[in-house]
Amino acid sequence: MTDEWFTGGFFDVPVIAVLRGLDPGATVAYAERAWAAGVEHVEVPIQTPEAVRALEAAAHEAASWGKYVGAGTVTTVEQLEAAARVGVSFTVSPGLSEAIVRESARRGIPHLPGVATASEIMAARQLGLTWLKAFPASELGPRWVKAMLGPFPEAKFVATGGMTPQNASQMFEAGARVVGLSTAFASAQGMAEAAELIVRANQPH
Predict the structure, then answer these.
(1) C-alpha distances in angstroms, 66 versus 30, 32, 60, 107?
(2) Would you name the residues annotated as active-site residues?
(3) Which CATH number does the domain housing residue 90 bear?
(4) What are phi and psi of 18, to 5 degrees?
(5) Residue 114: inside a domain, yes or no?
(6) Contacts of 157 (CB under 8 A, 6+ apart)
(7) Which domain holds residue 189?
(8) d(Cα 64, Cα 144) in Å, to the nearest integer?
(9) pLDDT (tens digit, 9 = 90+) per residue, 152-166?
(10) What are residue 180's DSSP bridge partners?
(11) Residue 4 lies inside a defined structural domain of this protein
(12) What percent of the chain has pLDDT over 90?
């Protein structure tokens, strides 16, 4: 239902920055670090009402950079509505909600639902989705990604949750298309590692 939005280069850069639990100023600062490192997409989880202000600040700043900001941890249609009001480019959920999938599609907002089982992948496929968030990725691990691509070769996994520049490489090798990094943008070393990961991930295999 929303897969068409993810084709045509939406995730040409296979790393997204997940900026959770920061105030608006810090969110913008970390987003700018991520964009400077080569990241195109920033996700700001909105599990609390206060986090919507951080999302709005990042979305406003993204316009001047020509980048994209999405809302993460969207678990209700009400949160989706709040995200839509601040002009997000995409939404992400920790699980699969048909109501959120359908409302995102109605609003023209790309949506990534979270999956962790074969049954959830099948349910997502029935809704027309192949771009899926593997969550929590660090707990599922690369063996899960490789195993699920057996029966679901059309699945395109965005691995999020506990990802670092170090374990992200294993996820790419297992077949994940995109990884979400969080703490990498807290230091210059982390930024450099993220930038290097982007370069490596974009190299032909």
Answers:
(1) 16, 11, 11, 21
(2) 43, 133
(3) 3.20.20.70
(4) -110, 110
(5) yes
(6) 132, 133, 134, 145, 148, 149, 175, 176, 177, 178
(7) 13-202
(8) 39
(9) 999 999 999 999 998
(10) 16, 160
(11) no
(12) 78
